[in-house]
DNA sequence: GATGAATGAGTATTCATTCAT
DNA sequence: AATGAATGAATACTCATTCAT
């Protein structure tokens, strides 16, 4: 249930991997520029470096390409995220570092994120669950780390607060990309990260309280 | 720079307004179901209650319809928002009420929000700025209210923090819709609002401080 | 159950009739030359005198054209046949005249007959029954006339013999067309008709007996 | 003029024979199911048990397969027919037995017959004569037997009558297959054979005379 | 102003055929 | 001799847009 198979006519597994790599790379470039619907299969084939006939040796329908692309993006993001999160110590300090790391990763992949936000809807009812499942898994990675902090007494949050916190920080990572037209005019990435961390951990009043806790 | 003209062949302003109303209503229903690209102009005409020929008396290109739809959505949201925000007193309590109100409004318009997220990309380079400008204006409404709170000494935030806070709450309002596949399985809307308000105002650590304020 | 509807987007019934007429005429010419599969929809549109887009305003799928063509052919044949058979008096003499008439008609439509024989298989499982039903009705016309002869004491045949006789003469009429590569080299049409009538009515031995009835 | 060569790249005659055997068997199965046009060369290769590359080592074009198939069918039919007809004694009784035998053979091969009727048109102008020639030869086998009967004084027919009689009985044998949708609902095969023999030999009036021979 | 028939560029997909390995 | 990956011409079908009535 974790990965939906996209059928290929070609048998050689290694070749399939290679050709799909070319295909996905070409497709991402194009999807970034013009979106899924405005990109033709021929353009994708050309961008991948082979003919339209060859393209269809490795997929069944155009939508398969979108699925492959989105699938690949998630895998990339998760891979990088996991790599980082395993070293997490379950302290607030370490959590902040991970969040900052994640924010920077997402900033690098902002174009891909945009594609996902805008084109995921075009996936069939069939493929969508697989994709959403991947996103849930990734949020889950953060949930685990936060839970550790709670277990270590560094944070005091119940199950539902943990989940929402994870969702929030997750979306804020993507937000840098999908609202760049607003954010990137005002903040540098590091500014953005600092400010978001502050808001995530202290909110707008917590922060006030922290400094002037006695005044109320 | 506030509104891009969509040219109509028909002169009677009142009629243009009426026909576009029908058109937009039909289009929204269809876009919700199948997205912009999968909806045909004929379908829109039929849903609007007139012929394809008539449709083209009131627009120039299919994209115009998308622009009109998105434009209308923003106007609706802003209208409701403004209506509420004018009564805002510039206190934290009143700000929280406004945010909760906004969250509920966005929950009601979640399908529209989804359409905007997924189809805005399809707007031409020409139309996009107008639309983004509207969103910036709406965020601005919240910025003003927050500024009032700061001016009243209820919050202690600088310009950049205000802006980011406004963006965050704005996105969190939309998030209930565009991440419903995850959130709406776990939270009721009111739960979601309560938890988000907590996180927005106290963060995850500010909250700790609040409860155990004495320990420091 | 007598006629399968082929959906048209155009509403004007008279126009639909007219355009389909053009379409069928063009299609028959092409099908005669190259068969259904080798004929493209564009060729049919061009032969009909309009664009590919217009073609599809009057049908849904390419197969619809084949159905329309075959349907039309049967209607034409039946029309001519019925016109003649109503005047039939129920005598052997009159039956022979009708058969000869039918043979001549089929000779005139031999290309159409060929198309039917070769392309009917290409009709979907959905459309085929309608077409076969038409052929059965046409055979039925002859069955009735033969029955009249039997009732008048001019022929002595039971139900099953009548049916088979009808089928035989029916196929022999088509045979002049679908075996022309053999028959039309040896016989003139009138020769063919005379000889077939002889064989149909007297067989190869009946004829012998007739002349020399006493010898056995 | 009796057999058209289909070029093979492979030299080993025995191998060519073997591979073509596999190919034809596979193709016949497929053509029966979906016709020539709807069957792909890949499917034929797979059904034959080898790769598409190998397939093209033994033919030049897809049409070659059709030719090979039809050629094979005719050979099969003729083989069985010849086997029987050589024993024919030149009497009416023996002729009837042969016809009945032929009818039964054709009933067994009805699917093949159907394929021939429907797909022969797809043969190029180049290959068609060879195929038609085979059919003429087969009709010729019957003509000979009938001629024997005439020579023996068992039948009184001139050249043209013999030829047409042969064609008729030949088509009636195929008819059981190509009109099965009508015939096989009404008659058993044996019934069909009996009735057709009656009609072939006595016609519809000759039969009358036979039964009431004394009345003249 | 309204209609809807006509248009044809555009697009996904298939499949016979080739050819390097 | 056998394989199967690569090719791209071909084709059914769609749909935004126009324009005569």
UniProtKB/TrEMBL annotation, chains A, B, C, D:
DNA-binding region: 40-59
Swiss-Prot/TrEMBL keywords: DNA-binding, Repressor
Domain HTH tetR-type residues, every copy: 17-77
Keyword DNA-binding: yes
Protein name: TetR/AcrR family transcriptional regulator
Top-level taxon in the UniProt lineage: Bacteria
DNA-binding as UniProt keyword: yes
Membrane-spanning ranges: none
InterPro entries, per the entry: Homeodomain-like_sf, HTH-type_Tx_Regulator, HTH_TetR, KstR2_TetR_C, Tet_transcr_reg_TetR-rel_C_sf
Pfam families: TetR_C_24 (PF17932), TetR_N (PF00440)
Record PANTHER family: ACREF/ENVCD OPERON REPRESSOR-RELATED, ACREF_ENVCD OPERON REPRESSOR-RELATED
